[in-house]
Amino acid sequence: IVLVISLLVTLITDYAFTNFILRPFYKIIDQKLNKVNNPTSYNYQNIPTNTTDFKILDNSINSLMRKISDLFLLEKQFIANVSHELLTPISILSGRLENILTADNLPIEHENKIFASLKTLNRLKVIINSLLLISKVENEQYLKKDNVSIKHQLDEIYEDLEDRILDKKIIYQNHVKSDFIFTGNQALIHTLLVNIINNAIKYNMLNGSITIGEDLNSSNYTLIINDTGIGMEKEIASNAFNRFERENNENEDGFGLGLAIVNSIAKFHQLNIDIKSSSK
């Protein structure tokens, strides 16, 4: 009997310790660590507790998050400033080169060099804008309040890319019939899909095909995009979402940022994205 009573007392004590004494600690972990996705949305309100150690822990976390938030805001400002400082002189230089092209009696060799320089400057602008977009997405500087229709986005993208699809004589089949809608940023989702389908066109073969399908069940919606492209080795496919990672292909221009943008937008919307490919 004494043993049973001792066991009951121990269980009651453990229960009280876990559910009452440690409750503020679990609240700190849950509300101040597990649920923080963005430093700017952090809740600095102290968790009610009479335990000195928990108060110290709570205040220390608040202090740390203030420092992180300050650094986060500085980073955003730095990116905006650097982008402006880089894009402005590039635009000015491009304008000056374009004006030179209008000059009479410009030697053909000079004209060719100017065209090459303009192409390089344009590539720099694309890279800077792409990196700026990735940074803004990763810093959660966009809202996710739009009702996004996947079917509508795909229809719009086909209209935009139809000429390129026809140029390569690609058989384009869109089997998406359901009007699946989710809450997100419509412009970013459009960018995500454009980059994926653009890659499917760019690296496809002449007379190839692009097939878009869907798998909809009670818990998940999966969009499937298949193409008859050149494919990628397993190692390259596993690193495809990294910035500036791309397979060397002299026949195609690229910066290795398209899929990095796709990956950032997918993470921002908490979407899973996967590549299955084999080299041909």
Outline of this structure?
This protein has 8 helices and 5 strands. With 280 residues, the protein is mainly alpha-helical.
Description:
- The structure is a single chain.
- The chain is mainly α and 280 residues long.
- The protein has 2 domains: 1-141; 146-268, Histidine kinase-like ATPase, C-terminal domain (Heat Shock Protein 90).
- Helices cover 59% and strands 10% of the residues.
- It has a 3-stranded mixed sheet with strand order 2-4-5, covered by helices on one side.
State the domain count.
2
Largest sheet: 3 strands, mixed
Write down how many β-strands occur, each being a DSSP E stretch of 2 or more residues.
5
Oligomer: single chain
Shape: flat
- Stretches where pLDDT is under 50 for at least 5 consecutive residues are none
- Alpha-beta classification: mainly alpha
Strand content: 5-15%
Helix content: 55-70%
* Run of helices and strands: HHHHEHEEHEEHH
How are strands sequenced across the largest beta sheet?
2-4-5
Number of helices: 8
Distance between the termini: 76 Å
Q: Any idea what the radius of gyration is? A: 27 Å
Average pLDDT confidence is 83
What topology emerges from the helices and strands here?
Blueprint: H1 2-21, H2 23-34, H3 52-101, H4 108-138, E1 146-149, H5 150-167, E2 171-174, E3 181-184, H6 186-202, E4 209-216, E5 221-227, H7 234-238, H8 258-268
Parallel strand pairs: 2-4
Antiparallel strand pairs: 1-3, 4-5
Helix pairs in contact: 2-3, 3-4, 4-8, 5-6, 6-8
